[in-house]
Prior knowledge:
The protein contains eight helices and 15 strands. The chain is 21% helix and 27% strand. With 291 residues, it is an alpha/beta fold. Helix 5 links the parallel strand 7 and strand 8. The protein folds into two domains: 10-64, Vcp-like ATPase, Chain A, domain 2; 68-259, Vaccinia Virus protein VP39 (Rossmann fold, 3-Layer(aba) Sandwich). The protein has helices at 40-43, 67-73, 83-86, 89-92, 112-119, 132-144, 185-191, 205-218, and strands at residues 10-14, 20-24, 30-33, 36-39, 51-53, 59-63, 100-104, 124-128, 155-158, 171-176, 192-202, 221-228, 234-237, 240-243, 253-259. The site of S-adenosylmethionine has 21 residues, from loops.
Amino acid sequence: MTAYFVSGEEIHLVNKKGKIYRLLLQEGAIFQFSGEKIAHDEIIGKEDGSEIALSRGTRFFVLKPTLAEYTRNMPRGAQVLYAKDLSLIPMWADVYPGATVIEAGIGSGALTLPLLNAVGEKGRVISYEIREDFANRAIKNIESYGKPSPLGDRLKLHREDIYEGIKEDNVDRIVLDLPEPHRVVPHAAQKLRTGGIFLCFLPTVPQIEKVVLALQQERCFEWIETFETLLRPWNVDGRSVRPSLRMVAHSGFITTARRIKRLPVKREVSEKSENPQAIPAHVEGVPETEE
Ligand SMILES: C[S@@+](CC[C@H](N)C(=O)[O-])C[C@H]1O[C@@H](n2cnc3c(N)ncnc32)[C@H](O)[C@@H]1O
C-alpha cells in the first residue's frame, strides 16, 4: 500500500552519502540546510521514498524511518537496545498476537515498540518502570512512532519497582531488561502462566549466573538457555567483498526459560520394601510438584 507523508510525523531526509537528517513535518514550516530551504508543505503528501530538491538543487530522499532507525535515533533517557537484540527478543520470548507481556524497565521504550507490534491489536504490554523521567520519555517516544501511533492503547505502565512484585496474574510472557532480573524470578514463578516464557537481557556473566541459579531454584522452570548473538556487517563493493572493519563486538546475553507444571509426587509403596517409611520422597526420575 502506498504511504504518503502527513503533517505531524517524523521523517528522515537522507543525502547521497547516507547521512540522515530527522525532520518533524509541520504545515507552514520551512526546512533549512546550508543556506538552502524547502517548505514542509512540499513534502507533505509525497510518497515515502521520494526524492526532493532544495532551493539551490541539493537533493535528498525522504523516508519514513524504519523501526530499527527510529529506535536508534529517538531521544533517550536510559540506554536502549538496538535492532540486533530487538529483532531477536520477540522471537525468543515467542510473543504472539493477543499475548499479555510484562516488561521491565521500559527505559526509553525501544524494546516496548517491537513488543507492542508483536502482541497486535488484541494483546497487551504492561511495563514496570521505577524512574518517572524515563517513563515519560518512553511514552513520548512510543506515541511519536509512526504518527498517528496505533500502539499507545495496547500499553499499560506501572511506575513501580518490579522487584517488589507483579500485580497481574496468569501472564503469557515476562521480558526483562534491568540489572537484577534474579530478583524478579520468584514473582515470575507465581505470575507466569504454565507454558509461559521468561526472558531477560543482560550484559555481563555474573548477572547471568545469578538469574540462572534463581530460575533453577524455583523448580518450575525448564529449558533454561543463554545465548549471545553477533552481527557482523559485510562490505560488498565491486571486488572488495569482505567483513566490515568495524562491528559491535558485544551488547548482551539473552536468557530464556519455560514455566512448567510438574506431576505430583507419587509415594507408592513398593511390594519388595520391608520398610515403606524408608522410601525417599524424591526418587530420581520422579518429578516433584512445585505446590
Ligand atoms: C537498560 S534500561 C531498559 C532499556 C529499554 N529496554 C529500552 O530498550 O529502551 C533499564 C531500565 O530499567 C529500569 N529499572 C531498573 N530497576 C527497575 C526495577 N526494579 N523496576 C522497574 N524498573 C527498573 C531503569 O530505570 C531503566 O529505565
